[in-house]
């Protein structure tokens, strides 16, 4: 009969962690191994939202999915986009029409010849791209017409184009994987109403 007392279980867990760290890091410096050991000790195996597939491409954690794409820009594309970003102060309120959109980011690199587009959203990949095409088509074409080969958001080949430039995240963390955009907004409204009520009766 095996001894499963808390002390022995802890020792077994520690030995298992050390074995896994050795397999992953092998001849790496001890400081790096210790950092990974500490991270694994703190990891809760019951944490919600372990990463799975977002559908065609990308990862999903709980209800939240990620999309990261890199593409070449047309000559002058970065400067044109910077002018657009400056005109709207980097704020695309129209994107709120896509009620599943958490955020989106644009980063220029390699001397303004490439762009990185990163976003997180609720649900699966196909539905998200279809939301772009039906709810904010003009904004999508405004932002991506500076990308080489962009077919247009309503083009039948646009999904293949996006998937061809997308890179699935190898590591990804979501703080609240089971809170959709709609749920987050509802909770914010409820909290605001509660605070207003408490202020009135104070």
From TrEMBL:
Superkingdom, natural source: Bacteria
Protein name: Uncharacterized protein
């Amino acid at each position: 009969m095996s001894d499963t007392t808390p002390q022995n279980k802890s020792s077994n867990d520690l030995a298992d962690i050390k074995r896994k760290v050795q397999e992953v890091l092998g001849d790496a410096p001890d400081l790096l191994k210790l950092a990974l050991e500490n991270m694994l000790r703190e990891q809760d195996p019951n944490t919600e939202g372990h990463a799975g597939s977002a559908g065609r491409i990308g990862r999903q954690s709980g209800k939240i999915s990620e999309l990261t794409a890199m593409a070449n820009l047309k000559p002058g594309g970065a400067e044109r986009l910077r002018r657009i970003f400056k005109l709207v102060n980097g704020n695309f309120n129209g994107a709120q029409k896509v009620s599943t959109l958490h955020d989106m980011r644009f980063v220029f690199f390699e001397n303004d010849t490439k762009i990185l587009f990163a976003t997180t959203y609720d649900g699966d990949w196909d539905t998200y791209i279809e939301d772009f095409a039906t709810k904010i088509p003009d904004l999508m074409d405004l932002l991506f017409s500076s990308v080489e080969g962009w077919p247009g958001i309503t083009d039948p080949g646009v999904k293949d184009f996006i998937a061809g430039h997308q890179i699935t995240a190898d590591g990804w963390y979501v703080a609240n994987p089971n809170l959709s955009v709609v749920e987050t907004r509802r909770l914010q409204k409820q909290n605001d109403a509660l605070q207003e009520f408490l202020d009135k009766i104070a």
